[in-house]
């Protein structure tokens, strides 16, 4: 997601270094997850299913370039924050110390990413506008989640 912002908004030079740093951190997480999977004999899926959660959020974005940029930053914040919640729930219920520590690391990192995207929005938009729109997005996201089929997912 972070690298998608770099590609779609290369003119937002003030946030590109932090976006790249976030993207690298996410890729490192994937590398760590993959190493854990290999150690446990778990294979990657051959196909990734469509992410209806994100797809439905994106459908609600404004279409104007500036408004869409703001909306996408706020959606990124919500997705990262929701991921943090899920990782925390997993960490809280794991007994294996290595995995518990790993999921706690993911939880804290994803929570940080959620804040980063709001901070980026505040760099370009008035505070009241950002927080009013974020509250709107949180409400929309809750409605979307209520309508989705329950399935195992962390992010």
Structure at a glance:
The chain is mainly α and 155 residues long. Helix content is 75%, strand content 0%.
Any chance you could write out the topology, listing elements then pairs?
Blueprint: H1 2-8, H2 16-39, H3 52-59, H4 65-93, H5 97-124, H6 127-147
Helix pairs in contact: 1-2, 4-5, 4-6
Can you offer a commentary on this structure?
The protein has helices spanning 2-8, 16-39, 52-59, 65-93, 97-124, 127-147. With 155 residues, it is mostly helical. Helix 4 (65-93) runs antiparallel to helix 5. Helix content is 75%, strand content 0%. The mean pLDDT is 94. It has a domain at 51-147: Ferritin, core subunit, four-helix bundle (Ferritin), CATH 1.20.1260.10. It is globular and about 45 Å long. The protein is built from six helices and no strands. The termini are close together.
């Amino acid at each position: 997601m972070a690298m998608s912002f770099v590609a779609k908004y290369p003119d937002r030079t003030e946030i590109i270094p932090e976006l790249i740093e976030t993207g690298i951190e996410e890729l490192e997480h994937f590398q760590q997850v993959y190493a854990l999977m290999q150690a446990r004999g778990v294979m990657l899926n051959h196909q990734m299913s469509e992410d209806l959660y994100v797809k439905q959020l994106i459908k609600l974005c404004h279409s104007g370039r500036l408004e869409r940029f703001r909306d996408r930053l706020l959606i990124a914040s919500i997705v990262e924050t929701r991921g943090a919640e899920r990782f925390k729930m997993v960490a809280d219920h794991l007994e294996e110390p290595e995995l518990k520590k790993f999921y706690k690391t993911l939880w804290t990192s994803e929570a940080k990413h959620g804040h980063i995207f709001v901070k980026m929005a505040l760099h370009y938009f008035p505070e009241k506008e950002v927080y009013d729109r974020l509250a709107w997005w949180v409400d929309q996201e809750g409605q979307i989640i209520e309508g989705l089929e329950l399935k195992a997912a962390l992010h």
